[in-house]
Design brief:
This protein has 345 residues and is α+β, with helices and mostly antiparallel strands. It contains twelve helices and seven strands. It has three domains: 81 residues, Orthogonal Bundle (Butyryl-Coa Dehydrogenase, subunit A, domain 1); 93 residues, Beta Barrel (Butyryl-CoA Dehydrogenase, subunit A, domain 2), CATH 2.40.110; 138 residues, Butyryl-CoA Dehydrogenase, subunit A, domain 3 (Up-down Bundle). Helices cover 51% and strands 14% of the residues. The chain is globular.
Length: 345
């Protein structure tokens, strides 16, 4: 990209999205972000937007991930991953932050579920082992945040350097191919205490934030489907197609409105109480559901020509299907807890 940077954050994100769209097919083939796209993201500082000390709001970050997702969902997805885990690293001791950010452009991927094992966390740290799936963007990361369980006591997050784990290339998938969400393997590595943080100080209080950011690129992908379908049918389209377009565009706009309102709440308090956290989880799942419905409706109405690998709508549909398979975007699992809270009042 040119050394010139557009003046506003949204314009900077839009410039990267245009580049990501141009390289989307190659990103799929590489099964990681195209080097030019990654370079542009870093040049514009997009993965660092909610790093501690940044002036960017959570609302702006979610919006940026949506803009990137409009160009390429894998690009928006990696940006949310790197961005929100920068945020989590800001909860670690200062000496750990200084080590990680000795290179201020360092990228951090993660698999936060506590599937790793340790015999116990002590004042000397912990020896951890395990295999963690879905480490999006790990090919470009220097660190991983990995969830670890112990026989007694709460789970922990371990901050693990790339010299301490191996990547197993398991990412042969339907959609979001460019995220490179591969497995990480750790075999009996000692993690010092300053690189361990309990879930009660990380995952639990910031659960709403960790889930809400997932849907940013989902909204962007659904908007891309609306844009692509609109271009395809043109101004002379029959009424049935226009109705499908109108309904899908309304769903995407509604999803965006709900999510940005939730982001505004988190900008006031990123670790809200249980009721608000549960409501934001509901809102996130609802937004994902709307985007999935909108994209599917348009793809099904687009005709057989959109089945070809060269067509962008089929890629958007596959990426949307993969994104909405995320465990934290599942409708029933995210909304029943909120309904239980309502009836208990």
């Amino acid at each position: 990209m040119s050394e010139f940077q557009p003046p506003t954050l949204r314009q900077r994100a839009g410039a990267v999205a245009d580049l990501a769209r141009e390289h989307a097919a190659q990103t799929e083939k590489l099964r990681q972000l195209h080097p030019e796209v990654l370079r542009a993201m870093q040049d514009m500082g997009l993965p660092q937007l909610i790093k501690h000390g940044s002036m960017c709001s959570i609302r702006e970050f979610v919006d940026v991930c949506g803009i990137l997702g409009e160009g390429c969902m894998s690009t928006g997805w990696c940006n949310f991953v790197w961005g929100v885990h920068n945020y989590l690293v800001g909860l670690f001791p200062q000496e750990t932050q200084d080590e990680v950010w000795s290179n201020p452009k360092t990228l951090i991927s993660a698999s936060l579920g506590p599937v790793g094992q340790t015999d116990g966390v002590t004042e000397d740290g912990a020896v951890i082992s395990g295999r963690w799936r879905f480490n999006s963007g790990c090919d470009h990361a220097d660190w991983l945040l990995l969830g670890v369980s112990q026989p007694e006591g709460e789970p922990y997050l371990a901050l693990v350097h790339k010299s301490e784990y191996q990547i197993d290339d398991t990412w042969q998938v339907l959609g979001l191919r460019g995220t490179g969400s591969k497995d990480a393997i750790v075999d009996n590595i000692r993690i010092p205490p300053e690189r361990l943080m309990p879930a009660s100080m990380t995952l639990f209080p910031y659960g709403a934030l960790l889930v809400l950011v997932i849907v940013g690129p989902v909204i962007g992908g659904a908007q891309a489907a609306v844009n692509e379908f609109s271009r395809k049918i043109g101004p002379d389209a029959e009424q049935g197609l226009l109705l499908r377009l109108a309904e899908s565009s309304a769903e995407v706009d509604a999803a965006r409105t709900v999510v940005l309102a939730a982001a505004d709440i988190l900008d006031i308090n990123p670790a809200p109480a249980a009721f608000m956290t549960t409501r934001i989880l509901r809102d996130t799942a609802f937004a994902a559901r709307l985007c999935n419905q909108a994209t599917r409706r348009l793809f099904e109405a687009a005709g057989g020509s959109e089945l070809h690998n060269s067509r962008p709508l089929q890629r958007i549909f596959r990426d949307m299907t993969a994104a909405c398979a995320h465990a934290r975007l599942q409708w029933e699992g995210q909304v029943i807890p909120y309904a239980n809270m309502l009836v208990a009042e």
